[in-house]
Model the fold of this input.
Amino acid sequence: MRKGLIMLGAVAMLTGCKVGPNYKRPEVAAPPQFRGAEGQPAPASMADSKWFEVFRDETLQGLVKEALAANYDIRIAAQRVIEAEGQVTATRAALFPQLGIQGTASRSGTKSPVFSSAGGFLAASWELDLFGRIRRATEAAQAQMLATQENQKAVRQALVSEVALSYFSLREYDAELAYVMESLKTRTESLNLVTARQKGGVSTLLDVDQAQTLLSAAQVQKAKLEKAVEQTENLINFLLGKPPGPVARGLALSAQYQPPAIPAGIPSALLDRRPDLRYAEQQLVAANARVGVAKAAFFPTITLTAAGGYQTVDLVNIVDRSSASYNMGGMLDLPIFDAGRRSGNYKSAKAQKEQLVVNYQKAINNAFRDVSDALVGYAKAKESRTSQEVLTKTLRHQSDLANLRYRGGVSSYLEVLDTERQRLGEEQSLAQAQRDELSAMVQLYKALGGGWQE
Done:
């Protein structure tokens, strides 16, 4: 009979069905190419490159590696993956027989007679998954684990991008500060010259005040930029899981690697490349499986039980007076009336699945928009930086001419004041334009689904 029960369970496991819908990826209309992409779409994409192939500044690479090893969010995401793996193991365990050892001992009576008994049994139970309830629950747990793994990749991608963006911002503040320090030196020399000329009766006190104003404005800029530098360094150290402190510098903004062209790839490839989209899909897979769990609750469950061991009625002579015993059985649980509990759970599971279908479609269309926004952002940032370089070069030339004209007595100090103010402003704008171009490249790389690869 024992072999019969085992055979029955094995046949039930092999022939049992899984109620509920099997997962099928929702239909999503992908555009033939991204808006803003030049030429015909090709399978190749910038996102296929690993992050250290895109960010070639060795100092930046070192900062990213430190962040990936010690960042708080990275460590939390890793533990969430372990938690999800444990949940899969716990859920799948219900597919197999459960074994345990049971021991009993009792003594009862008044004065006489006194009854004693003791026993030890190896007990087993096995729920036959005839309608796939446990298998659907395992399927949901596995999908949830995969979603957690995709979320870990998304956290990694976001961290790589954030470290790169912060580093480029730091180098931009460094460049601005260098321009301001150079201007401070020039403006100090100019103030000394104007003061000497005023004492010699060549210039006026108004010229001296204007020169002092120009110097003070640069000093204000210097203080603001030094604050921005230290706060950005603190942010980078936080991303690295370190206390506030200085940050090493590598290449200047103008020396950072810029790819000659950035291929966007085919829009439909985003579904398998971006971790946030894969996360949303695995959430949908899990919800679809939970519909099957809820539907299986309408069907009967069969649980096989067996126990075998020894029992005795003499606690003193357990060995001599014990005898073997066993029992086998099964339990059928057939739902008849539950006041709508199962129907409510099934309705709720289906609604949750439909919500995630819409959420998945929304995430995909938002990804297409991200890429198009990033493409136009990068193209216009490059165009702006090119124009800013020409403008800055022109104003530097004008500033040099204005100083020469003032020293030669051809023009007033007002001309020097105006051109110097414009020159410094445009030099700072040039640094910002260089930063913006690099930042746009980072945003495009992330939007295309790059940055999480090992």
Notes: Strands lie at 98-109, 114-128, 301-312, 323-333. The longest strand covers residues 114-128. Residues 17-97+131-299+345-447 form a domain with the Outer membrane efflux proteins (OEP) fold (CATH 1.20.1600.10).
